Amino acid sequence: MPAPATADLHLHTTFSDGTESPERIVELARQAGLSAMAITDHDNVDAFPIAQRAAAKHGIELITGIEMSASAENLEVHLLGFLIDLAHPGLVKHLDVQKARRVERVHEMVGRLNKAGVRIEAAEVLTLAGEGTVGRPHVARVLLKHGYITSLPEAFQKYIGPDNPGFVPGSPLPPALIIRVIREAGGVPVLAHPIYLKRDALIETFVRDGLVGIEAYHSGHAPDVVRRYEQLADRLGLLKTGGSDFHGDSKEGLPVGAVKVPAALIDALRAWKASHPA
Ligand code: AMP
Ligand code: ZN
Ligand code: FE
Ligand code: FE
Q: 22 CB contacts (<8 Å, ≥6 apart)?
């Protein structure tokens, strides 16, 4: 009997805060034996056309994806959007604004860090980020380079995590707005790594705002956590997705395919999309 087809639906490239190129990630997916995958860069979809060429060559199915930032009750909310229309004008406009906002945010973070006696420069962070969207891991890497920390997680404990001197939220926008942007672009909105939200009660409000799925399977979810979110999804009538949240060297020891889900989950996303025209 052939092995069941599997997918990794949460991957980051150099177009956000990952350290591997789109082509390399497709290559790693092939080596991991995956049949299907989605790249979900933070507020960026530019890896898709590049990865698509590589995926076609390797016979891997690549679906469109994104991870967008929102905030609710001072908590960070990450929303995945699958099967989105990359050229949708509303989405393109949102991403342009968000990309500029992320640059602004780096200036604000670095300004706060400077006040706290940390001598790094925004220009170095922005150069490191390159053409994609800039994020906190880029700040963390500059802190590491200048000897303020000895590991990347330490940056989020001392300098740029919530309650730290350099913290600035990723996006002031409410989840309802992001869910709408995703749905209007023909996508399926899914709450990323619900464990990091730290407040399950909020999920029901997101469902009222149009949320369609949750990422029950994630590298940060222990087996009992997976079961909890499977049950929550079934109770609320939500679709389930999953993926590794691979970031290359930004998250050490976590390979592409660290979380594999049945590729059939993609059929459920497609079926939902087909019955809910944008
Ligand atoms: P941003 O979108 O700029 O707020 O950055 C969020 C990203 O920072 C996440 O996707 C992770 O890659 C990384 N991150 C967040 N918290 C931590 C942490 N505690 N340790 C290491 N990386 C983290
Ligand atoms: Zn990230
Ligand atoms: Fe995330
Ligand atoms: Fe992610």
A: 13, 14, 15, 39, 47, 48, 50, 51, 54
